[in-house]
Design brief:
Blueprint: H1 2-6, E1 9-12, E2 16-21, H2 37-48, E3 58-59, E4 68-74, H3 77-88, E5 93-101, E6 108-118, E7 123-126, E8 131-143, E9 146-153, H4 160-167, E10 192-200, E11 207-211
Parallel strand pairs: 4-10
Antiparallel strand pairs: 1-2, 2-4, 3-4, 5-9, 5-10, 6-7, 6-8, 8-9, 10-11
């Protein structure tokens, strides 16, 4: 477990542990009782630093089980409070790479909707009484009947990217919950990758940028030299 987790570390210091989350793995425990990335990370720290008892490690944001990419964990309560505030106050820039079904026509765009959460079905839907949801995208390439997009989230609603593109007839590849007809990685992962996060370090006056390479299960034709964040400048 320790070796497996250590290979996913993007950055580590006394306050932060940043991981490249694999698609299909839970971040934290749910009703399934399946293994989680948070449990793996705590075990990694416990073994590496010979910590007795419980290990403090806090989630400051989340990724869906089916998604992959950059996940930031706080190793101290001070870091947890400051990072949580940074996410809440939208001082974190969040960039995703996403492959959707269909040929997206516009080379760039702004999607703005109101999303409500259906707890029974565990999915989001566009509804006028829901919470405001905004994202910007750039079309990077089209491959057959698929479109590869770079997305910058301006809000952080549950399943936001998945719901907003599905509402326009472009479900994320592999996302059967939102209408995809394609399967990826045995159905436990989709082609939605938290590619890069830019955030303030919790204890230093320093801007940090973390970037995660695409998972191996992404189709080769969708992999290429990483885009630059200046696309959204």
């Amino acid at each position: 477990m320790v070796l497996k987790l250590s290979e996913r570390i993007l950055y580590e210091d006394n306050h932060l542990l940043v991981l490249n989350k694999p698609g299909g793995l839970l971040v934290q425990r749910d009703r399934t009782g399946d293994e989680t990335l948070l449990d793996q990370a705590k075990q990694y720290l416990k073994v590496k630093y010979h910590k007795p008892g419980n290990v403090f490690l806090a989630l400051v944001h989340r990724l869906d089980r089916v998604s992959s990419g950059v996940l930031v964990l706080a190793r101290t309560s001070k870091a947890a409070a400051r990072l949580s505030a940074a996410f809440r106050e939208r001082r974190v820039a969040k960039f995703y790479l996403v492959a959707v079904e269909g040929r997206v026509r516009k080379s760039e765009g702004l999607l703005e909707d109101h999303l409500s959460w259906d707890e029974k079905r565990r999915k989001a839907k566009v509804h006028p009484t829901g919470q405001r949801a905004r994202l910007r995208y750039r079309l990077l390439r089209r491959v057959g009947d698929l479109s590869l997009l770079l997305v910058r989230l301006e809000t952080g609603r549950k399943h936001q990217i998945r719901a907003q593109f599905a509402h326009r007839g472009h479900p994320v590849v592999g996302d059967w919950k939102y209408g995809s007809r394609k399967k990826v990685f045995g159905g436990r992962a989709i082609l939605l990758h938290a590619w890069s996060l830019v955030l303030p370090h919790p204890t230093r006056s320093e801007e940090m940028r973390f970037t995660a390479p695409l998972p191996a299960y992404w189709p080769q034709e969708l992999k290429f030299e990483p885009p630059t964040l200046e696309l959204f400048a």
